[in-house]
């Protein structure tokens, strides 16, 4: 597994998994989304630019979540 340094200074593991287990992936993404939103809310008063970056990252995770759920249900989602 390679490590990936994101813009806010945390280290994440990057894996080259396929979507064989969408339920497991969605639970990880849901947890990551809630953590990003919570962290963005916590730093909102002290560092607005970091908070904006964290909210943007959370929105990316949310889009991934929605696309995985739409593919799992064979739905065609339009945004």
From TrEMBL:
InterPro entries: DUF6435. This is Lacal_2735 family protein. It comes from Corallibacter vietnamensis.
